[in-house]
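[agent] plan:
  1. take the single chain provided in the ticket
  2. run structure prediction with default settings
  3. attach C-alpha coordinates to the ticket
  4. add a short note for the reviewer (M.T.)
[agent] executing step 1
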Amino acid sequence: MLHINKTLIRMSKGFRGWIFVIAALKIAVLVGITMFANAIGTILGQLYERGAGDVDFTTLIARSFIASVIMLVGELLIGEVEHICTAKARVSIRSEIFSKLLELDVKDVSRIGATNTINSSVDGVELIQMYYNRYIPGLIYSVAAPIYTFFALMNKCLPAAILLLVVSLVVTPLNNIFRNKIDKLKSDYWTGMNNLSSYYVEGIKGMTTTEVYNRGDDREAELNKRANFVSRIIIRIMQLNFSSIGLSELIMNLSIFAAVAICGGQLLAGSIALPSALTVLMLSFGFFGSIRHLQWIEHEAIQGIAAAGKIAEVLDVDTKREISPDRSKKNDFAGISLENVTFSYDNENDILKGVDIQIPQNATVALAGESGCGKSTVVNMLLRFYDTKTGRITIDGRDYMSIAPEDLRKEIIMVPQQVYIFSGNIRDNLLMADDSAGDEKLLSVLDQVKLGDWVRSLSEGLDTNVGDAGSKLSGGQRQKIGIARAILSDAPYIVFDESTSSVDEDSEREIWECIKGLGKTRTLIIISHRLSTIRNADCIYVLEDGKVTEKGDHNTLMKNNGIYSRLVTQQNELEESAVLGGGQVG
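[agent] step 2 finished; step 3 output follows
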Protein backbone atom coordinates (compact mmCIF):
# COMPACT_ATOMS: atom_id res chain seq x y z
CA MET A 1 0.00 0.00 0.00
CA LEU A 2 3.06 2.25 0.33
CA HIS A 3 3.73 3.05 -3.31
CA ILE A 4 6.55 5.59 -3.35
CA ASN A 5 8.09 6.12 -6.77
CA LYS A 6 11.29 8.14 -7.20
CA THR A 7 10.45 9.19 -10.74
CA LEU A 8 7.05 10.53 -9.72
CA ILE A 9 8.47 12.32 -6.69
CA ARG A 10 11.14 13.93 -8.86
CA MET A 11 8.55 15.11 -11.42
CA SER A 12 6.44 16.77 -8.70
CA LYS A 13 9.03 19.53 -8.18
CA GLY A 14 6.84 22.34 -9.56
CA PHE A 15 3.70 21.61 -7.53
CA ARG A 16 4.69 19.76 -4.36
CA GLY A 17 3.34 22.57 -2.23
CA TRP A 18 -0.18 21.92 -3.47
CA ILE A 19 0.11 18.25 -2.50
CA PHE A 20 0.92 19.23 1.08
CA VAL A 21 -1.93 21.78 1.05
CA ILE A 22 -4.39 18.98 0.19
CA ALA A 23 -3.03 16.85 3.04
CA ALA A 24 -3.20 19.81 5.43
CA LEU A 25 -6.83 20.48 4.49
CA LYS A 26 -7.69 16.83 5.13
CA ILE A 27 -6.15 17.14 8.58
CA ALA A 28 -8.13 20.36 9.16
CA VAL A 29 -11.33 18.47 8.30
CA LEU A 30 -10.28 15.76 10.79
CA VAL A 31 -9.85 18.46 13.45
CA GLY A 32 -13.38 19.59 12.70
CA ILE A 33 -14.68 16.02 12.96
CA THR A 34 -12.95 15.59 16.32
CA MET A 35 -14.42 18.87 17.62
CA PHE A 36 -17.87 17.83 16.43
CA ALA A 37 -17.59 14.38 18.06
CA ASN A 38 -16.46 15.94 21.34
CA ALA A 39 -19.33 18.42 21.29
CA ILE A 40 -21.99 15.83 20.43
CA GLY A 41 -20.56 13.34 22.94
CA THR A 42 -20.64 16.00 25.65
CA ILE A 43 -24.20 17.01 24.80
CA LEU A 44 -25.53 13.44 24.85
CA GLY A 45 -23.56 12.49 27.96
CA GLN A 46 -24.63 15.49 30.00
CA LEU A 47 -28.25 15.10 28.92
CA TYR A 48 -28.21 11.55 30.21
CA GLU A 49 -26.38 12.30 33.46
CA ARG A 50 -27.72 15.73 34.46
CA GLY A 51 -30.86 16.46 32.48
CA ALA A 52 -31.64 19.14 29.91
CA GLY A 53 -31.71 21.97 32.42
CA ASP A 54 -28.10 21.52 33.52
CA VAL A 55 -26.49 21.47 30.04
CA ASP A 56 -24.77 24.55 28.56
CA PHE A 57 -26.29 24.16 25.09
CA THR A 58 -25.08 27.55 23.83
CA THR A 59 -21.38 26.76 24.13
CA LEU A 60 -21.72 23.18 22.86
CA ILE A 61 -23.89 24.15 19.88
CA ALA A 62 -21.43 26.94 19.02
CA ARG A 63 -18.61 24.36 19.05
CA SER A 64 -20.66 22.05 16.85
CA PHE A 65 -21.37 24.89 14.41
CA ILE A 66 -17.70 25.92 14.23
CA ALA A 67 -16.72 22.29 13.67
CA SER A 68 -19.32 21.95 10.90
CA VAL A 69 -18.03 25.11 9.21
CA ILE A 70 -14.45 23.80 9.38
CA MET A 71 -15.54 20.49 7.80
CA LEU A 72 -17.61 22.17 5.07
CA VAL A 73 -15.00 24.76 4.11
CA GLY A 74 -12.27 22.13 4.30
CA GLU A 75 -14.07 19.75 1.94
CA LEU A 76 -14.82 22.56 -0.52
CA LEU A 77 -11.21 23.71 -0.47
CA ILE A 78 -9.93 20.15 -0.93
CA GLY A 79 -11.92 19.85 -4.16
CA GLU A 80 -10.62 23.20 -5.41
CA VAL A 81 -6.99 22.53 -4.49
CA GLU A 82 -7.16 19.04 -6.05
CA HIS A 83 -8.27 20.70 -9.27
CA ILE A 84 -5.38 23.19 -9.10
CA CYS A 85 -2.91 20.41 -8.32
CA THR A 86 -4.22 18.35 -11.25
CA ALA A 87 -3.87 21.27 -13.66
CA LYS A 88 -0.36 22.10 -12.50
CA ALA A 89 0.68 18.43 -12.64
CA ARG A 90 -0.56 18.11 -16.22
CA VAL A 91 1.16 21.29 -17.37
CA SER A 92 4.41 20.60 -15.53
CA ILE A 93 4.81 16.95 -16.53
CA ARG A 94 3.68 17.41 -20.13
CA SER A 95 6.03 20.37 -20.49
CA GLU A 96 8.89 18.22 -19.20
CA ILE A 97 7.97 15.36 -21.54
CA PHE A 98 7.49 17.57 -24.59
CA SER A 99 10.77 19.39 -23.88
CA LYS A 100 12.46 16.01 -23.81
CA LEU A 101 10.70 14.90 -26.99
CA LEU A 102 12.07 17.93 -28.79
CA GLU A 103 15.56 16.82 -27.74
CA LEU A 104 15.09 13.27 -29.03
CA ASP A 105 16.79 12.31 -32.24
CA VAL A 106 15.65 9.77 -34.81
CA LYS A 107 17.59 6.98 -33.14
CA ASP A 108 15.99 7.77 -29.77
CA VAL A 109 12.42 7.71 -31.10
CA SER A 110 13.15 4.48 -32.97
CA ARG A 111 14.44 2.86 -29.81
CA ILE A 112 11.59 3.99 -27.55
CA GLY A 113 8.81 3.56 -30.11
CA ALA A 114 6.38 6.19 -31.36
CA THR A 115 3.34 4.60 -29.69
CA ASN A 116 5.07 4.39 -26.33
CA THR A 117 6.13 8.02 -26.65
CA ILE A 118 2.55 9.13 -27.41
CA ASN A 119 1.04 7.00 -24.62
CA SER A 120 3.55 8.41 -22.15
CA SER A 121 2.74 12.04 -22.93
CA VAL A 122 -1.03 11.60 -23.15
CA ASP A 123 -2.51 8.59 -21.31
CA GLY A 124 0.43 8.31 -18.92
CA VAL A 125 -0.04 11.85 -17.61
CA GLU A 126 -3.75 11.26 -17.07
CA LEU A 127 -2.95 8.27 -14.85
CA ILE A 128 -0.16 10.02 -13.00
CA GLN A 129 -2.22 13.05 -11.96
CA MET A 130 -4.34 10.84 -9.68
CA TYR A 131 -1.17 9.80 -7.90
CA TYR A 132 -0.46 13.42 -7.05
CA ASN A 133 -3.85 14.83 -6.14
CA ARG A 134 -5.25 11.79 -4.33
CA TYR A 135 -2.71 9.12 -3.44
CA ILE A 136 0.23 11.13 -2.04
CA PRO A 137 -2.01 13.51 -0.02
CA GLY A 138 -3.92 10.42 1.16
CA LEU A 139 -0.67 8.74 2.18
CA ILE A 140 0.45 11.77 4.20
CA TYR A 141 -3.00 11.98 5.78
CA SER A 142 -3.02 8.26 6.61
CA VAL A 143 0.13 8.76 8.69
CA ALA A 144 -0.91 12.01 10.39
CA ALA A 145 -4.59 11.17 11.07
CA PRO A 146 -4.11 8.14 13.38
CA ILE A 147 -1.45 10.03 15.38
CA TYR A 148 -3.70 13.09 15.80
CA THR A 149 -6.73 10.95 16.70
CA PHE A 150 -4.61 9.02 19.23
CA PHE A 151 -3.82 12.23 21.10
CA ALA A 152 -7.49 13.22 20.89
CA LEU A 153 -8.50 9.91 22.55
CA MET A 154 -5.66 9.26 24.98
CA ASN A 155 -7.12 11.48 27.72
CA LYS A 156 -10.50 9.80 27.36
CA CYS A 157 -9.54 6.10 27.13
CA LEU A 158 -5.79 5.44 26.88
CA PRO A 159 -5.93 1.62 26.38
CA ALA A 160 -8.39 1.94 23.47
CA ALA A 161 -6.30 4.75 21.93
CA ILE A 162 -3.10 2.67 22.14
CA LEU A 163 -4.82 -0.38 20.59
CA LEU A 164 -6.17 1.61 17.65
CA LEU A 165 -2.82 3.35 17.05
CA VAL A 166 -0.85 0.07 17.08
CA VAL A 167 -3.26 -1.55 14.61
CA SER A 168 -3.09 1.49 12.29
CA LEU A 169 0.71 1.21 12.25
CA VAL A 170 0.62 -2.55 11.56
CA VAL A 171 -2.16 -2.81 9.00
CA THR A 172 -0.41 -0.72 6.32
CA PRO A 173 2.86 -2.72 6.17
CA LEU A 174 0.77 -5.89 6.26
CA ASN A 175 -0.55 -4.99 2.84
CA ASN A 176 2.96 -5.27 1.40
CA ILE A 177 2.34 -9.02 1.22
CA PHE A 178 0.12 -8.27 -1.75
CA ARG A 179 2.21 -5.38 -3.07
CA ASN A 180 5.04 -7.58 -4.40
CA LYS A 181 2.59 -9.55 -6.53
CA ILE A 182 0.96 -6.37 -7.79
CA ASP A 183 4.35 -4.86 -8.70
CA LYS A 184 5.03 -7.79 -11.00
CA LEU A 185 1.73 -7.21 -12.78
CA LYS A 186 1.91 -3.44 -13.24
CA SER A 187 4.75 -3.61 -15.80
CA ASP A 188 2.85 -6.25 -17.78
CA TYR A 189 -0.23 -4.02 -17.66
CA TRP A 190 1.51 -1.03 -19.26
CA THR A 191 3.28 -3.19 -21.84
CA GLY A 192 -0.06 -4.74 -22.72
CA MET A 193 -1.68 -1.31 -23.04
CA ASN A 194 1.09 -0.15 -25.37
CA ASN A 195 0.71 -3.25 -27.54
CA LEU A 196 -3.06 -2.80 -27.63
CA SER A 197 -2.85 0.90 -28.51
CA SER A 198 -0.20 0.30 -31.17
CA TYR A 199 -2.22 -2.48 -32.81
CA TYR A 200 -5.39 -0.40 -32.71
CA VAL A 201 -3.74 2.67 -34.29
CA GLU A 202 -2.10 0.46 -36.90
CA GLY A 203 -5.49 -1.07 -37.68
CA ILE A 204 -7.06 2.36 -38.21
CA LYS A 205 -4.23 3.51 -40.48
CA GLY A 206 -4.25 0.29 -42.47
CA MET A 207 -8.01 -0.18 -42.63
CA THR A 208 -8.13 0.12 -46.42
CA THR A 209 -5.51 -2.60 -46.87
CA THR A 210 -7.26 -4.80 -44.32
CA GLU A 211 -10.57 -4.52 -46.14
CA VAL A 212 -9.02 -5.05 -49.59
CA TYR A 213 -7.54 -8.37 -48.45
CA ASN A 214 -10.61 -9.24 -46.38
CA ARG A 215 -8.58 -9.67 -43.19
CA GLY A 216 -10.86 -7.69 -40.91
CA ASP A 217 -11.88 -10.77 -38.88
CA ASP A 218 -8.24 -11.69 -38.25
CA ARG A 219 -7.40 -8.19 -37.08
CA GLU A 220 -10.47 -8.16 -34.84
CA ALA A 221 -9.50 -11.51 -33.31
CA GLU A 222 -5.98 -10.29 -32.54
CA LEU A 223 -7.33 -7.02 -31.13
CA ASN A 224 -9.66 -8.98 -28.84
CA LYS A 225 -6.75 -11.18 -27.78
CA ARG A 226 -4.66 -8.18 -26.77
CA ALA A 227 -7.61 -6.49 -25.05
CA ASN A 228 -8.35 -9.68 -23.09
CA PHE A 229 -4.71 -9.86 -22.00
CA VAL A 230 -4.96 -6.35 -20.51
CA SER A 231 -8.35 -7.15 -19.02
CA ARG A 232 -7.01 -10.26 -17.27
CA ILE A 233 -4.18 -8.26 -15.74
CA ILE A 234 -6.57 -5.56 -14.51
CA ILE A 235 -8.89 -8.20 -13.00
CA ARG A 236 -5.96 -9.91 -11.28
CA ILE A 237 -4.74 -6.61 -9.85
CA MET A 238 -8.25 -5.84 -8.62
CA GLN A 239 -8.51 -9.29 -7.03
CA LEU A 240 -5.29 -8.74 -5.13
CA ASN A 241 -6.46 -5.29 -4.09
CA PHE A 242 -9.77 -6.61 -2.80
CA SER A 243 -7.98 -9.40 -0.93
CA SER A 244 -5.71 -6.82 0.66
CA ILE A 245 -8.66 -4.60 1.55
CA GLY A 246 -10.61 -7.57 2.94
CA LEU A 247 -7.80 -8.59 5.27
CA SER A 248 -7.30 -5.01 6.42
CA GLU A 249 -11.02 -4.48 7.02
CA LEU A 250 -11.19 -7.62 9.15
CA ILE A 251 -8.28 -6.51 11.33
CA MET A 252 -9.54 -2.92 11.64
CA ASN A 253 -13.13 -3.90 12.50
CA LEU A 254 -11.92 -6.38 15.12
CA SER A 255 -9.74 -3.67 16.66
CA ILE A 256 -12.68 -1.22 16.69
CA PHE A 257 -14.84 -3.86 18.41
CA ALA A 258 -12.07 -4.44 20.96
CA ALA A 259 -11.61 -0.70 21.56
CA VAL A 260 -15.36 -0.23 22.13
CA ALA A 261 -15.37 -3.21 24.47
CA ILE A 262 -12.45 -1.77 26.48
CA CYS A 263 -14.16 1.60 26.62
CA GLY A 264 -17.45 0.00 27.70
CA GLY A 265 -15.69 -1.94 30.45
CA GLN A 266 -14.08 1.21 31.81
CA LEU A 267 -17.44 2.99 31.66
CA LEU A 268 -19.10 0.24 33.69
CA ALA A 269 -16.22 0.32 36.11
CA GLY A 270 -16.61 4.07 36.48
CA SER A 271 -13.10 4.79 35.19
CA ILE A 272 -14.36 7.15 32.48
CA ALA A 273 -17.38 9.41 32.11
CA LEU A 274 -20.19 8.82 29.63
CA PRO A 275 -19.31 11.86 27.41
CA SER A 276 -15.77 10.51 27.02
CA ALA A 277 -17.08 7.04 26.22
CA LEU A 278 -19.44 8.39 23.56
CA THR A 279 -16.61 10.44 21.99
CA VAL A 280 -14.36 7.35 21.89
CA LEU A 281 -17.20 5.36 20.32
CA MET A 282 -17.72 7.92 17.52
CA LEU A 283 -14.02 8.52 16.78
CA SER A 284 -13.16 4.80 16.85
CA PHE A 285 -15.28 4.15 13.79
CA GLY A 286 -13.52 6.97 11.98
CA PHE A 287 -10.04 6.12 13.26
CA PHE A 288 -9.17 4.09 10.15
CA GLY A 289 -10.97 6.31 7.63
CA SER A 290 -7.69 7.61 6.19
CA ILE A 291 -6.33 4.09 5.74
CA ARG A 292 -9.52 2.89 4.08
CA HIS A 293 -9.36 5.82 1.66
CA LEU A 294 -5.76 4.97 0.84
CA GLN A 295 -6.69 1.36 0.11
CA TRP A 296 -9.46 2.30 -2.29
CA ILE A 297 -7.24 4.58 -4.34
CA GLU A 298 -4.29 2.17 -4.35
CA HIS A 299 -5.18 0.91 -7.82
CA GLU A 300 -4.82 4.47 -9.14
CA ALA A 301 -1.38 4.67 -7.54
CA ILE A 302 -0.34 1.40 -9.19
CA GLN A 303 -1.49 2.65 -12.60
CA GLY A 304 0.37 5.91 -12.06
CA ILE A 305 3.59 4.09 -11.13
CA ALA A 306 3.26 1.80 -14.15
CA ALA A 307 2.85 4.85 -16.37
CA ALA A 308 5.80 6.52 -14.65
CA GLY A 309 8.02 3.61 -15.64
CA LYS A 310 7.29 4.25 -19.32
CA ILE A 311 7.61 8.00 -18.93
CA ALA A 312 10.99 7.43 -17.28
CA GLU A 313 12.12 5.60 -20.42
CA VAL A 314 11.56 8.85 -22.30
CA LEU A 315 12.89 11.27 -19.68
CA ASP A 316 15.97 9.19 -18.91
CA VAL A 317 17.13 9.01 -22.52
CA ASP A 318 20.57 10.54 -22.78
CA THR A 319 20.10 13.08 -25.57
CA LYS A 320 23.51 14.64 -25.18
CA ARG A 321 25.58 14.38 -28.33
CA GLU A 322 29.33 14.52 -28.29
CA ILE A 323 30.66 17.91 -29.34
CA SER A 324 34.45 18.02 -29.37
CA PRO A 325 35.88 21.49 -30.09
CA ASP A 326 39.35 19.93 -30.12
CA ARG A 327 38.32 18.08 -33.29
CA SER A 328 37.44 21.28 -35.13
CA LYS A 329 40.73 21.42 -37.02
CA LYS A 330 39.88 22.08 -40.64
CA ASN A 331 41.04 20.27 -43.74
CA ASP A 332 41.11 21.78 -47.19
CA PHE A 333 38.20 19.85 -48.73
CA ALA A 334 35.26 22.05 -49.77
CA GLY A 335 32.29 19.74 -49.35
CA ILE A 336 31.35 16.66 -47.32
CA SER A 337 33.89 13.91 -46.83
CA LEU A 338 33.41 10.45 -45.28
CA GLU A 339 36.77 8.99 -44.37
CA ASN A 340 36.96 5.27 -43.50
CA VAL A 341 33.53 5.39 -41.81
CA THR A 342 32.34 2.30 -39.97
CA PHE A 343 28.94 2.08 -38.26
CA SER A 344 26.79 -0.47 -36.45
CA TYR A 345 23.27 -0.08 -35.08
CA ASP A 346 23.81 -2.78 -32.45
CA ASN A 347 27.56 -2.33 -31.86
CA GLU A 348 28.09 -5.83 -33.22
CA ASN A 349 27.18 -6.15 -36.89
CA ASP A 350 28.75 -3.41 -39.00
CA ILE A 351 26.38 -1.87 -41.56
CA LEU A 352 29.04 0.42 -43.02
CA LYS A 353 32.56 -0.94 -43.38
CA GLY A 354 35.32 1.57 -44.06
CA VAL A 355 33.30 3.82 -46.37
CA ASP A 356 35.09 6.65 -48.19
CA ILE A 357 32.87 9.16 -50.04
CA GLN A 358 33.70 12.62 -51.35
CA ILE A 359 30.86 15.10 -52.03
CA PRO A 360 32.34 18.32 -53.50
CA GLN A 361 30.51 21.63 -53.20
CA ASN A 362 28.03 22.43 -56.01
CA ALA A 363 28.19 18.85 -57.30
CA THR A 364 25.50 16.19 -57.64
CA VAL A 365 26.50 12.90 -56.06
CA ALA A 366 24.34 9.78 -56.16
CA LEU A 367 24.35 6.61 -54.05
CA ALA A 368 23.32 3.39 -55.76
CA GLY A 369 23.07 -0.25 -54.80
CA GLU A 370 20.61 -2.98 -53.92
CA SER A 371 18.32 -2.74 -50.89
CA GLY A 372 20.18 -3.18 -47.63
CA CYS A 373 23.56 -2.12 -49.01
CA GLY A 374 23.85 0.85 -46.61
CA LYS A 375 22.59 3.83 -48.65
CA SER A 376 20.08 5.03 -46.06
CA THR A 377 22.61 4.49 -43.28
CA VAL A 378 24.98 6.87 -45.08
CA VAL A 379 22.16 9.43 -45.13
CA ASN A 380 21.66 8.95 -41.37
CA MET A 381 25.35 9.62 -40.93
CA LEU A 382 25.25 12.75 -43.09
CA LEU A 383 22.43 14.25 -41.00
CA ARG A 384 24.08 13.09 -37.79
CA PHE A 385 21.09 11.07 -36.68
CA TYR A 386 23.82 8.64 -35.65
CA ASP A 387 27.52 9.08 -35.01
CA THR A 388 30.26 7.00 -36.59
CA LYS A 389 31.68 3.97 -34.85
CA THR A 390 35.08 4.68 -36.37
CA GLY A 391 36.28 7.04 -39.06
CA ARG A 392 35.56 10.70 -39.65
CA ILE A 393 33.05 12.92 -41.44
CA THR A 394 33.77 16.54 -42.31
CA ILE A 395 31.70 19.31 -43.87
CA ASP A 396 33.61 22.13 -45.50
CA GLY A 397 36.66 21.01 -43.54
CA ARG A 398 34.95 20.94 -40.12
CA ASP A 399 34.72 17.66 -38.22
CA TYR A 400 31.11 16.56 -37.65
CA MET A 401 31.92 15.81 -34.00
CA SER A 402 32.75 19.48 -33.42
CA ILE A 403 29.33 20.66 -34.65
CA ALA A 404 26.07 20.48 -32.67
CA PRO A 405 23.40 18.51 -34.61
CA GLU A 406 21.05 21.51 -34.65
CA ASP A 407 23.77 23.66 -36.20
CA LEU A 408 24.74 20.98 -38.69
CA ARG A 409 21.16 20.68 -39.94
CA LYS A 410 21.24 24.33 -40.96
CA GLU A 411 23.87 23.25 -43.46
CA ILE A 412 22.34 20.01 -44.70
CA ILE A 413 18.62 19.24 -45.18
CA MET A 414 16.78 16.15 -46.39
CA VAL A 415 13.72 15.44 -48.53
CA PRO A 416 12.69 11.91 -47.47
CA GLN A 417 10.77 9.24 -49.33
CA GLN A 418 7.58 10.22 -47.51
CA VAL A 419 7.47 13.94 -46.77
CA TYR A 420 5.48 14.66 -43.61
CA ILE A 421 2.96 17.45 -43.92
CA PHE A 422 1.64 18.88 -40.66
CA SER A 423 -2.01 19.71 -40.11
CA GLY A 424 -2.73 23.35 -40.82
CA ASN A 425 -2.23 25.31 -44.00
CA ILE A 426 0.35 25.49 -46.78
CA ARG A 427 1.93 28.61 -45.31
CA ASP A 428 2.55 27.00 -41.89
CA ASN A 429 4.24 24.00 -43.47
CA LEU A 430 6.61 26.20 -45.47
CA LEU A 431 7.40 28.57 -42.61
CA MET A 432 8.95 25.68 -40.69
CA ALA A 433 12.03 26.26 -42.85
CA ASP A 434 12.04 30.05 -42.57
CA ASP A 435 9.53 31.69 -40.25
CA SER A 436 10.46 35.16 -41.54
CA ALA A 437 9.62 34.44 -45.20
CA GLY A 438 6.95 36.64 -46.79
CA ASP A 439 4.29 35.56 -49.27
CA GLU A 440 6.40 36.62 -52.26
CA LYS A 441 9.27 34.36 -51.19
CA LEU A 442 6.92 31.47 -50.40
CA LEU A 443 5.26 31.67 -53.80
CA SER A 444 8.68 31.92 -55.46
CA VAL A 445 9.85 28.59 -54.02
CA LEU A 446 6.48 27.05 -54.93
CA ASP A 447 7.04 28.22 -58.50
CA GLN A 448 10.33 26.32 -58.51
CA VAL A 449 8.50 23.08 -57.72
CA LYS A 450 5.63 23.78 -60.16
CA LEU A 451 3.06 24.48 -57.45
CA GLY A 452 2.91 28.28 -57.59
CA ASP A 453 0.09 28.57 -60.15
CA TRP A 454 -1.94 25.91 -58.36
CA VAL A 455 -1.68 27.72 -55.01
CA ARG A 456 -2.59 31.06 -56.59
CA SER A 457 -5.70 29.44 -58.09
CA LEU A 458 -6.97 28.38 -54.66
CA SER A 459 -9.53 30.66 -53.03
CA GLU A 460 -7.51 30.79 -49.79
CA GLY A 461 -4.10 30.61 -51.44
CA LEU A 462 -1.30 29.95 -48.97
CA ASP A 463 -3.88 29.74 -46.18
CA THR A 464 -5.51 26.67 -47.74
CA ASN A 465 -5.98 23.91 -45.18
CA VAL A 466 -4.03 20.76 -46.08
CA GLY A 467 -6.05 18.42 -43.87
CA ASP A 468 -4.86 15.98 -41.21
CA ALA A 469 -1.21 15.15 -42.08
CA GLY A 470 -1.75 16.61 -45.56
CA SER A 471 -4.68 14.30 -46.36
CA LYS A 472 -6.15 16.86 -48.80
CA LEU A 473 -3.00 16.83 -50.93
CA SER A 474 -1.92 14.31 -53.53
CA GLY A 475 1.32 12.39 -53.08
CA GLY A 476 3.03 14.57 -55.66
CA GLN A 477 1.86 17.79 -53.99
CA ARG A 478 3.15 16.60 -50.61
CA GLN A 479 6.58 15.80 -52.06
CA LYS A 480 6.76 19.15 -53.87
CA ILE A 481 5.91 21.05 -50.70
CA GLY A 482 8.65 19.06 -48.97
CA ILE A 483 11.14 20.12 -51.65
CA ALA A 484 9.93 23.73 -51.47
CA ARG A 485 10.49 23.61 -47.71
CA ALA A 486 14.05 22.34 -48.27
CA ILE A 487 14.74 25.11 -50.81
CA LEU A 488 13.39 27.71 -48.41
CA SER A 489 15.81 26.58 -45.70
CA ASP A 490 18.76 27.87 -47.77
CA ALA A 491 20.82 24.85 -46.68
CA PRO A 492 23.72 24.47 -49.13
CA TYR A 493 23.48 20.66 -49.06
CA ILE A 494 20.24 18.79 -49.86
CA VAL A 495 19.72 15.03 -49.57
CA PHE A 496 17.01 13.43 -51.73
CA ASP A 497 16.30 9.98 -50.27
CA GLU A 498 14.00 8.15 -52.73
CA SER A 499 12.04 11.41 -52.95
CA THR A 500 10.02 10.41 -56.05
CA SER A 501 9.29 6.76 -55.31
CA SER A 502 5.70 7.40 -54.14
CA VAL A 503 4.46 9.85 -56.80
CA ASP A 504 2.88 9.53 -60.23
CA GLU A 505 4.90 9.74 -63.44
CA ASP A 506 4.02 13.38 -64.25
CA SER A 507 4.89 14.55 -60.73
CA GLU A 508 8.11 12.55 -60.81
CA ARG A 509 9.16 14.24 -64.05
CA GLU A 510 8.43 17.70 -62.67
CA ILE A 511 10.27 16.93 -59.42
CA TRP A 512 13.36 15.75 -61.28
CA GLU A 513 13.33 18.90 -63.42
CA CYS A 514 13.32 20.89 -60.20
CA ILE A 515 16.15 18.78 -58.74
CA LYS A 516 18.25 19.34 -61.86
CA GLY A 517 17.70 23.07 -61.50
CA LEU A 518 18.78 22.98 -57.87
CA GLY A 519 21.99 21.25 -58.89
CA LYS A 520 23.20 24.55 -60.34
CA THR A 521 23.20 26.33 -56.97
CA ARG A 522 23.21 23.59 -54.29
CA THR A 523 25.16 20.45 -53.50
CA LEU A 524 22.87 17.45 -53.99
CA ILE A 525 23.11 13.93 -52.57
CA ILE A 526 20.62 11.65 -54.32
CA ILE A 527 19.33 8.17 -53.62
CA SER A 528 16.85 6.90 -56.20
CA HIS A 529 15.48 3.46 -57.01
CA ARG A 530 15.21 4.50 -60.66
CA LEU A 531 18.80 4.56 -61.87
CA SER A 532 17.93 6.40 -65.08
CA THR A 533 17.31 9.52 -62.98
CA ILE A 534 20.85 9.65 -61.57
CA ARG A 535 22.77 9.05 -64.80
CA ASN A 536 23.65 12.75 -65.05
CA ALA A 537 25.16 12.87 -61.55
CA ASP A 538 28.74 14.11 -61.36
CA CYS A 539 29.73 11.02 -59.41
CA ILE A 540 27.88 7.82 -58.50
CA TYR A 541 28.99 5.71 -55.55
CA VAL A 542 27.90 2.07 -55.67
CA LEU A 543 27.57 0.30 -52.32
CA GLU A 544 27.46 -3.43 -51.67
CA ASP A 545 27.32 -5.01 -48.22
CA GLY A 546 28.26 -1.72 -46.56
CA LYS A 547 31.29 -1.03 -48.75
CA VAL A 548 31.91 1.28 -51.68
CA THR A 549 32.69 -1.09 -54.56
CA GLU A 550 32.49 1.33 -57.49
CA LYS A 551 32.55 5.06 -58.16
CA GLY A 552 32.51 7.29 -61.20
CA ASP A 553 30.06 8.87 -63.60
CA HIS A 554 27.41 6.87 -65.46
CA ASN A 555 29.46 6.22 -68.60
CA THR A 556 32.51 5.09 -66.64
CA LEU A 557 30.51 2.70 -64.49
CA MET A 558 28.72 1.22 -67.51
CA LYS A 559 32.06 0.50 -69.16
CA ASN A 560 33.28 -1.28 -66.01
CA ASN A 561 30.51 -3.92 -66.37
CA GLY A 562 30.24 -4.15 -62.60
CA ILE A 563 27.33 -4.02 -60.15
CA TYR A 564 26.03 -0.68 -61.42
CA SER A 565 26.02 -1.86 -65.04
CA ARG A 566 24.15 -5.01 -64.03
CA LEU A 567 21.54 -3.08 -62.04
CA VAL A 568 20.97 -0.62 -64.92
CA THR A 569 20.62 -3.45 -67.44
CA GLN A 570 18.15 -5.33 -65.23
CA GLN A 571 16.07 -2.22 -64.70
CA ASN A 572 16.04 -1.37 -68.41
CA GLU A 573 14.82 -4.89 -69.19
CA LEU A 574 12.05 -4.58 -66.64
CA GLU A 575 10.92 -1.24 -68.05
CA GLU A 576 10.93 -2.59 -71.59
CA SER A 577 8.87 -5.59 -70.47
CA ALA A 578 6.42 -3.27 -68.75
CA VAL A 579 6.05 -1.12 -71.87
CA LEU A 580 5.48 -4.16 -74.07
CA GLY A 581 2.96 -5.49 -71.62
CA GLY A 582 1.13 -2.15 -71.41
CA GLY A 583 2.20 -1.66 -67.82
CA GLN A 584 4.34 0.84 -66.01
CA VAL A 585 7.37 0.57 -63.75
CA GLY A 586 7.73 3.00 -60.89
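[agent] step 4 note for reviewer: The chain has 22 helices and ten strands.
[agent] ticket updated
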